[in-house]
Please model this.
Amino acid sequence: AVHAEGLGRRYGEGEAAIDALADVTVSFPKGQFAAVMGPSGSGKSTLLHCLAGLDRPTSGEVTIDGTALSGLSDRDLTVLRRTAIGFIFQSFNLLPMLTARENVELPLRIAGRLDSARVDATLADVALGDRATHRPAELSGGQQQRVAIARALVSHPTVIFADEPTGNLDSTSGHEILHLLRRAVDEGGRTVVMVTHDPRAAVVADRVLMLSDGRVVMDRPGMTA
Amino acid sequence: AVHAEGLGRRYGEGEAAIDALADVTVSFPKGQFAAVMGPSGSGKSTLLHCLAGLDRPTSGEVTIDGTALSGLSDRDLTVLRRTAIGFIFQSFNLLPMLTARENVELPLRIAGRLDSARVDATLADVALGDRATHRPAELSGGQQQRVAIARALVSHPTVIFADEPTGNLDSTSGHEILHLLRRAVDEGGRTVVMVTHDPRAAVVADRVLMLSDGRVVMDRPGMTA
Ligand SMILES: Nc1ncnc2c1ncn2[C@@H]1O[C@H](COP(=O)(O)OP(=O)(O)OP(=O)(O)O)[C@@H](O)[C@H]1O
Ligand SMILES: Nc1ncnc2c1ncn2[C@@H]1O[C@H](COP(=O)(O)OP(=O)(O)OP(=O)(O)O)[C@@H](O)[C@H]1O
Ligand SMILES: [Mg+2]
Ligand SMILES: [Mg+2]
Model:
């Protein structure tokens, strides 16, 4: 589903240059749940952003379902992202003036495909049905994170990128989110690429990769493989 | 150092009312490291904000070193916070136009007590000395979190409130932060009240409290007590 070939991402230049990614080649087949781990600053968010077409790599290529992202105009890239990709941001990126429900509806509204039953079901999946009319400022950190998760899942995207989806969640809520993502793969045939510091990832994911200083230094099956 | 008596915090009213805190009475003596855990939405951030004078409780009272917060004007409360309290926010609250160093310097500048050697030492304590000139947008999530931690510690406050200081950190970085806070207590005689989902808290903290639906439901020694 997603393939990266010789991916590099450099910020700055000269002596101040930072290579967030250096020569990353990796494939994520359809129907796979991969966890990406690594130290703070090792390039995990950068990798996800490049794979999802949210950032242009300095070198190398990303293809999603056979389409090379570098060949796409910004407009075509936006359409691809809107139709095929769900992204759960590390910092949630909720729109503060919209309610929880309106944030979750947004991808469907933009696509002209609003489906209220699906929005209700997705909010219920993240246990936030009773808070649908609250704005982000009226929700706890973990509640906001779950709204972000619902928004990424509601359009049933073929590929879901999740940047630390359980960082702000307690053990029970985190467990529920990991299993929601697992079900998206098992029942929906989706591909999930999840950045996490959560050791439970090895139990839930099919595969665990480790990044260090912008490179993949480990790539092994998880316990469910 | 910090005492809460019958603390309540209600949002909204009538049927839509939410009791984020309900009748919380708890003391945190000087030189204690307490961890506060609990499910998402259980009131942890709300408790920290009320204890630190960042939010006014609906009912009850908070005293810090014998001073009741309710008796303070907003100006006096601000002075108390500036001189005695360090707060590590769940969402970091860094100023985006300032560099990492300038964010960390800010409490000292406001107090008219800039000490460049102390700023350097604190940035080194969180392993970010080499990134001091970068703005928050140029830092990873965990790097931003560590800038926030440095900013809370640089003025050597007597009480440190930490809202999920390791949520975005990998295991090694998280371990270093927990030990940095432990040293602030052991060597500096400070009081630390830390909200966390990290099970390692029980190993590092003197005491572990559990919140559920705005109430303290457990209060036991940690393993170092
Ligand atoms: N400004 C607000 N208006 C309305 N409700 C609020 C507001 N702030 C918090 N709440 C609600 O109060 C409850 C407690 O919130 P709080 O942020 O203290 O939880 P928390 O334990 O820190 O959760 P998390 O682990 O998700 O960060 C939640 O149900 C939350 O939605
Ligand atoms: N816009 C930018 N400008 C300069 N450097 C950047 C920028 N974005 C990221 N970096 C740097 O690139 C490196 C990788 O960042 P990235 O956000 O991918 O790390 P990460 O693995 O997600 O870390 P964390 O676990 O802390 O979230 C870091 O050193 C970071 O500071
Ligand atoms: Mg990151
Ligand atoms: Mg919170």
About this structure: Residues 171-186 of chain B form the longest helix (16 residues).
